[in-house]
Every structure is written in C-alpha cells, then in structure tokens.
Design a protein that fits this description.
A hairpin with a 5-residue loop joins strand 26 and strand 27. This protein has 647 residues and is of the alpha/beta class. 30% of the residues lie in helices and 19% in strands. Helix 2 packs across helix 5 and helix 11 packs across helix 13. Strands 21-22-23-24-27-26-25 form a seven-stranded mixed β-barrel, surrounded by four helices. The protein folds into three domains: 260 residues, Aconitase, domain 3 (2-Layer Sandwich); 142 residues, Aconitase, domain 3, CATH 3.30.499.10; 180 residues, Aconitase, domain 4 (Alpha-Beta Barrel). The structure holds alpha-methylisocitric acid and iron/sulfur cluster. The site of alpha-methylisocitric acid has 12 residues, from helix 2.
Length: 647
C-alpha cells in the first residue's frame, strides 16, 4: 500500500517508533521557528541545556508579537533574543520584518522538510508541502539542541477539493468550511492532507491560509502537495532551488476522506466567540460593523492585500468603520508601495499598521465597547481582541472589504465585478532585516543582554506518588489558552517574567483564581472537553505550575497544551467515564494515590471528598507514553533532559 504525503515526510525523518496510528514516533527536526512571545522562554530553556549552538539545519527567531514598547520590557526581550540568537547560531528576523509564518513561508520554508515552531500556526508552512508542527517552547528548545520531536502518530484525513471557487469566495472560506464540518476539536490527533483538482489550482499563499487555520481544528498539522504552484512560488522568491516535487502515492490509505465542492461554497463568516461558529455570510446581512482588520498570519500575503487594495480603490471606508491593515511582511509592504496599492489603501481611509501580529493578539487596535469587529484573522475567542464585550467575526478579505465600505455585513459581490489582480513573477527579495548568527569562533565572545524583566523558568518537583489537593477551578468545554493565560498589550510584556504573569492567570474566568491558588499552595484544575485549545504558549502550563497546580483532570485535552503540561511537570488525567465530570466540583478535595503504578498502568483512582464530608472514588485515565511518564517522574522535560544528558 502506498504512503500519504505526511507519511513520506515522516518516514524520511523517523528517529524511532513505527508509523502506526496511535504509536509514539520521534522525528528529526530540520528547522525551528520561535517568536518573541514564546521565544524568550524557549531561549532561556535552550540556554539551560548548556548547548552552545543549535543543531538544526536552520533556526530562525522572529520578533512580531510583542511590538508595543510601552515600557522597557519588550525592547529588553528583543535585545535578549537578538544577542542570544547571534551567540547560539540562530537567524534573527528583526521587528518590522514581518509575521513569523508569513516570512518563513516567503524566505525559509522548504517542501519535504520538518519544521517545529513555538507557535500554534507553524503549520502554515504546510502550504509549501512542509511537515510543520506547532509545539511548546521547551519542545522547540529540545529540537534546537538537536533532540527529536516526540508525538503520537496521528490519523490522516484527506480533504478532496473539487470544482472552482465562485468570484469573491476564497481560501479563507475553505478554511471556515472545514471548521463548520469538523469544529474546533475535530482535528485533534489528525494530520490534514489537502488534494484534488481544486487544491492544485490554489496558489501557495492561498494554501497557507488553509493550513494556517488547521490549528483552529486542533490538527497536528495540515499540508498540500509540492507541485507546479509550489515551484512558481519558490521561483518568485528566488528559491527555485529549494523545490522538490512531493505527492502522496495514488494508493495511499487515509483514515477519513472529506469532499468539498468549491463550486458550491458560499462566503462564510465565523461568529463570536469561536472559530467554528460558521454561517453563510448572507444570514448576517445588514449587521452594523464598527471595525474591520485585514492581516494576521492567515490573510496578509501580497495577493490578499493587492486584492484588498483593488477592491478599495476609488472608494472610501464607511465613516462609522475603522479599518486597519497589517501587512504580513516587509516584502508585502514594500511591494504594495511599489505597485501603488499602498496609496490606494491610504486614499480609501485605511489605517496602516506595522508588519506584525498587532490586533490579532490584542496588541493595540482594540475595538470599541460592544463593537462588531470583522477580522481576516484565525481566532475570535472572547476578549482576545482586548475588548471583553466586543464580538469578533472571522472573514475573508473580500467580506472584510465589503463591510469596511458599506458599514454593514454584506455579500462581497455587492462590490461589483471582482478586479483582476496581476502579481509580479519575481518578488522583491531583501533579507537585510534577517541577521545572521555569529560564526562558531566568534560566538563565544558574544555577550547575551538580559533585562531586569527576565525571570527564572519555574521548575516542578519529581511527581509524587500521592497527591492530595483541592479543586481550585472547574471549567467548561473548549477552554482556550487565552483564558488560562491571556495575552494582549497589558500582559504580553511579562512573558519572560512568570511571577508577574501569574496575576493574570484565568483572569477573565475567575479573578480570584491566582490569589486562591497562592493561598492553597497546591491545587487541581478540572476541565471539560478540548481543554487548552488554541495557542502553543507553554505559559498556560508554566504559570499554573508556578501557582501550585499539580494535576489537570479533563474530559479531553488539546494536543499542544497536553504536551506542555507534561513538559512543565503537571499531570494531565482524563475522566475514564466522561459523566464523572459532574461528580467533581470546585473546592472538593481530590486524593490521587499510587500515582506511579497508575502512570504505568494507565489508570489512577481519585477519591473525591466533598466539603460536607461525602466521598466517592472515580477512575481516571492516564494515557501517557513511557517517555512522558519518565518526564513527569523527573519533574518536567528540562529536568528529564538534564538527567538523560548526565547518563
Ligand atoms: C496566538 O495566535 O495565540 C499566538 C499568540 O500566536 C500564540 C503564541 C503565543 O501565545 O505567544 C500561538 O498561536 O501559539
Ligand atoms: Fe500572530 Fe495572530 Fe498569527 Fe498568532 S494567530 S502568530 S498572534 S498573527
């Protein structure tokens, strides 16, 4: 039987394990990507491993998230990252050069290679036929040190695209359609492989919009074949030499196949506050709009913004709408300037923001109270935009432009005919803002510059055999890492300062959480399904660890967060019987006994003691690989790595 595309790349990179669904595999990682909001911690962890120089083919550090410099903190972190990158053999993409995923696609991604990134949207590079996976900072630090990346071999879902997109319907609508079909947890434990005639017709940036939002499905990664379109893109970037053709075998076996007929696909919109609340845009016709944002790692390519400019040309943004555009990279912005499109955007009344994540992560441009904000982004979790009571809707650039002009949600075909967009065959390549690392001889003399904001990385103790702790918080389903550890302009400057970050833990869910956790000294969190969906931020594990959380019991976990809990040294357990979720409440005392045997046996018994005195015993499932068990017993991945190195 033939191999799927992902299986081929996995086979080429397999360090250990067998390519059988559900088995643990270890992959050699060719490239790593870090960004500033997760990178400071990842770099501190890399430093703690004592390895002088990265052992990957390529590691790049981007600065794109923490761009507002309201105080010294972010600037200090940028300086730390720049000096540490120089010392340790890492390329450094300077602030202003663009969003990590956009720049990586343009300048570094290579078909057939593996990429591990400390950002959940790392799978964007799957648009180039790369096996690109998001992970916590510590996993990325280990990969930078030359260690393999461990994961459970996912199931592989094939999506077959047929037909042709209607005018004004675009790649974003395909991504939203998948969310409508699969929901935010439908991709957990899966790799999504895109194919069919409809996929062949899509350009690399369009493919990247789709692979980007595989993260919202919870998928491990998403990828497209590497074909004529890939060559065309790489050639435009002056990188035709990086091209290798890659297709799945014609007799490859998939675990599931989804068919999407592009001809039938309408313009879609994801309603607040979840990317899978997807409806036909027509159902919301007439809804008044306050703000429109075009950009983010999902929709900020040159093609997206040239299209935006062409649709806006000669028109004016509605007086009640504030329109912001954040180009994905300096390359995109430069080319918009050269083509004259930038002038069209300005003439229409758009506010041009930096080439960075910006409003997507609440770094400025928060909407007004109760606003309706239409964004071409990928996440619309409550409060993420910076305004708790705003409603964020996720849309294509076409729907965004229509709303910006009309002031209400309208089908974009009301804009008239779709203007034809001509993109240059050769893109403007200028890597001057990517700094090369020092050569090995000079590296030892490079001084790392640390600001006072950088605190120590919290570490766990080896997992005890008995754990008795109160339930400090009980959450519902689909809790996001934005809820556990919010981001935004106020909080992000403290990404390298865990004690400061701790004040904000679960802030929007329960303001008393951090104080109660501190007072209790140790505790347990109970969650519903898909606990920890969303970002890769390991801070959503490190901060609870710092606050004394020793275990999280949930109905199910999102992939990256579950790995981050283990890496931090927190025990993730699931209810063997999902109904037992109802048997546990906040302030109950939970006793987990014979944990060490339970780890090996896959089951831990929990005694739940109610404040009134009643108690019940429930079984919990502990589905951890032997390696993960060893990590917990060592007190987290950092301790485990040091322990292994000492052997
Ligand atoms: C996000 O989109 O949520 C982020 C901010 O890019 C995160 C990374 C982070 O929290 O720093 C992600 O997607 O992993
Ligand atoms: Fe940046 Fe938003 Fe993309 Fe995250 S999702 S990398 S915050 S643009």
């Amino acid at each position: 039987m033939g191999l799927t595309l992902a299986e081929k790349i996995i086979k080429d990179h397999l360090v250990s394990g067998e390519i059988t669904r559900g088995h643990e595999i270890a992959l050699k990682i060719d490239q790593t990507l870090t960004q500033d909001a997760t990178g400071t911690m990842a770099f501190l962890e890399f430093e703690a491993m004592g390895i002088p120089r990265v052992r990957t083919e390529l590691s790049v550090a981007y600065v794109d998230h923490n761009m507002l410099q309201e105080g010294f903190e972010n600037a200090d972190d940028h300086r730390y990252l720049q000096s540490a990158a120089k010392k340790h053999g890492i390329y450094f993409s300077r602030p202003g050069n663009g969003i990590c995923h956009q720049v990586h696609l343009e300048r570094f991604g290579r078909p057939g290679k593996t990429l591990l990134g400390s950002d959940s949207h790392t799978p964007t590079a799957g648009g180039l036929g790369m096996l690109a996976i998001g992970a916590g900072g510590l996993d990325v630090a280990v990969a930078m040190a030359g260690g393999p990346y461990y994961l459970t071999m996912p199931r592989i879902v094939r999506v077959n695209l047929t037909g042709t997109l209607q005018p004004f319907v675009s790649a974003k609508d395909i991504a939203l359609e998948m969310l409508r079909i699969l929901t935010v947890k439908g991709g957990v434990g899966a790799i999504i492989e895109w194919g069919g005639d409809g996929a062949r017709a899509l350009t690399v940036p369009e493919r990247a919009t789709i692979t980007n939002m595989g993260a919202e499905l919870g998928a491990t990664c998403s990828l497209f074949p590497s074909d004529a379109r890939t060559l065309e893109y790489l050639a435009a970037q002056g990188r035709a030499g990086d091209y290798v053709p890659l297709e799945p075998d014609s007799d490859a076996a998939y675990d599931e196949t989804i068919e999407i007929d592009l001809t039938q696909l309408p313009s879609l919109i994801a309603c607040p506050h979840s990317p899978d609340h997807v409806v036909d845009v027509l159902t919301l016709t007439g809804t008044k709009v306050d703000q429109v944002c075009i950009g983010s790692c999902t929709n900020s390519s040159l093609a997206d913004l040239e299209k935006t400019a062409a649709l806006l040309k000669g028109k004016q943004v509605h007086p009640d709408v504030s329109l912001a555009i954040s180009p994905g990279s300096r390359q995109v912005l430069t080319m918009l300037a050269e083509s004259g499109a930038l002038a069209d955007l300005l003439a229409a009344g758009a506010r041009i923001l930096e080439c960075a994540c910006g409003p997507c992560i609440g770094m400025g441009f928060a909407p007004n109270s109760d606003a309706v904000s239409l964004r071409t982004f990928n996440r619309n979790f409550r409060g993420r935009c910076g305004t708790e009571n705003a409603g964020v809707y996720l849309v294509s650039p076409e729907v965004a432009v229509a709303a910006a002009i009309f002031g209400t949600i309208r089908h974009p075909r009301d804009l008239g005919a779709m203007p034809a967009i001509e993109l240059p065959r050769v893109f403007c390549v200028d890597d001057s803002q990517v700094l090369e690392p020092a050569d090995p001889a000079a590296a030892e003399f490079v001084q790392i510059m640390r600001g006072p904001n950088i605190g120590p990385v919290p570490t766990a103790s080896p997992l005890a055999d008995l754990l008795a702790a109160p339930v400090l918080l009980k959450t519902g389903d689909n809790v996001t890492t934005d809820q556990i550890m919010p981001a935004g302009a106020k909080v992000l400057p403290f990404r390298s300062n865990i004690p400061k970050l701790a004040h904000f833990c679960f802030e929007s869910t329960d303001r008393t959480f951090a104080d109660r956790a501190r007072a209790a000294g140790s505790g347990i969190i109970v969650g519903g399904d898909n606990y920890g969906q969303g970002s890769s931020r390991e801070h959503a594990a490190l901060v609870p660890l710092y606050l004394g959380i020793r275990a999280v019991i949930a109905r199910s976990f999102a992939r990256i967060h579950a790995a981050n809990l283990v890496n931090a040294g927190i025990l993730p357990l699931t209810f063997t019987d999902g109904n037992d979720y109802d048997a546990v409440a906040r302030d109950d005392s939970v006793t987990l006994s014979s944990i060490h045997d339970g780890l090996a046996g896959g089951r831990v018994m929990a005694t739940i003691q109610k404040p009134g005195g009643d108690s019940t015993i429930i079984p919990l499932t502990c589905s951890l690989t032997q390696r993960q068990q060893a990590i917990l017993l060592a007190g987290g991945l950092l301790a485990f790595t040091k322990q292994e190195a000492a052997k």
